[in-house]
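Retro notes (design track)

What went well: tokenization of the new backbones is finally stable.
What didn't: we kept losing track of which sequence belonged to which structure.
Fix going forward: every design gets posted as structure first, then sequence, in one message. First example under the new rule, 240 residues:
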């Protein structure tokens, strides 16, 4: 079967997941990668990232990169970051995508039961973990670290009453975002990916997919996956 030129492959992509998946498979061909700049991407995530890869591959190709992605098993953050022999440390870029929904449940479902002291401790513990993770990557790798911030939650523990709380869950999520931004500014080689802004642009109803989350720990709907792939490709291009 004769392969299509790169321009034709990219031109055939529409908004559907199937078209991205088809194009990403074609982009595995060495012939199509000729002329693109090789780019290795490592991913440390607390959820299943696999479905985002085709979008990232295609959007990276649009910007002149032949992306190859190494996925660490989801949730194995420290194990991979502290293992100097893991392939992720040879990547050009490492994406760190950590959600409180996956690793800090006290800040999600049990939020309304937290005292102010316990709330502060939970936030500090979460941020300390991410800082240690990022610092470990920077010590063992020359990769640019792309650090996600925290998107708005799919639902608030107190519902509509959250806005009236002295220490609201929305405020806590926003505080985490501000501190992650400060962390990215403080550590050289770390770039913040504003997933929180992207989620508001896409809209919460399209951002999350409870069915996919239940089936395969895939929290994002198709529209969100496509938006994430494009935003990551744009951020990588800007950083490099």
């Amino acid at each position: 079967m004769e392969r299509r030129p790169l321009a034709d492959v990219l031109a055939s992509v529409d908004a559907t997941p199937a078209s991205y998946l088809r194009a990403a498979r074609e982009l595995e061909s060495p012939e199509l990668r000729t002329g693109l700049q090789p780019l290795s991407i490592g991913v440390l995530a607390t959820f299943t990232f696999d479905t985002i890869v085709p979008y990232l591959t295609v959007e990276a190709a649009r910007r002149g990169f032949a992306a190859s992605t190494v996925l660490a098993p989801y949730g194995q953050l420290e194990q991979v970051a502290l293992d100097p022999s893991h392939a992720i440390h040879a990547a050009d870029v490492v994406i760190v995508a950590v959600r409180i929904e996956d690793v800090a449940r006290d800040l999600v479902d049990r939020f309304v039961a937290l005292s102010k002291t316990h709330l502060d401790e939970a936030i500090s513990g979460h941020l300390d973990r991410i800082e240690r993770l990022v610092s470990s990557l920077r010590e063992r790798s020359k990769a640019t670290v792309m650090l996600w911030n925290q998107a708005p939650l799919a639902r608030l523990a107190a519902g509509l009453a959250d806005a009236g709380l002295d220490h609201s869950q929305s405020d806590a999520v926003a505080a985490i975002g501000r501190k992650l931004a400060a962390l990215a500014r403080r550590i050289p080689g770390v770039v913040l990916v504003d997933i929180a802004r992207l989620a508001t642009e896409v809209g919460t109803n399209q951002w999350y997919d409870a069915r996919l989350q239940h089936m395969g720990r895939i929290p994002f709907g198709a529209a969100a996956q496509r938006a994430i792939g494009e935003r990551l490709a744009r951020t990588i291009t800007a950083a490099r």
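Added context from the reviewer: The CA atoms of residues 106 and 113 lie 9 Å apart.
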